[in-house]
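step=encode ok
step=design start
structure_in=
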């Protein structure tokens, strides 16, 4: 089973985000993950589900693609930075 799993670093490389972002998504329930010891893992099925139909756990908003979700997250981060 672990051969069919990704680490947060694997997913981060594929999506062009940091591994911390992936871990946050797991903790927020945006992508299903599980721990092996103290390390997070994401199944191939959970990764595919996340990429093909992202759902923001905090807003419940359904995204059309991972690109839409990343764009929205970047836009919100810029908005927060400009308000500081």
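sequence_out=
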């Amino acid at each position: 089973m672990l051969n069919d799993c990704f680490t947060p670093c694997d997913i981060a490389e594929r999506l062009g985000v940091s591994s911390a972002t992936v871990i946050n998504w797991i903790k927020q329930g945006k992508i299903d993950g599980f721990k092996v010891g103290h390390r997070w893992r994401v199944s191939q099925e959970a990764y595919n589900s996340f990429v093909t139909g992202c759902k923001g756990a905090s807003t419940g908003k359904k995204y059309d693609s991972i690109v839409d979700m990343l764009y929205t997250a970047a836009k919100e981060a810029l908005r927060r930075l400009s308000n500081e």
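step=design ok
step=annotate ok -> The first strand starts at residue 5 and ends at 6.
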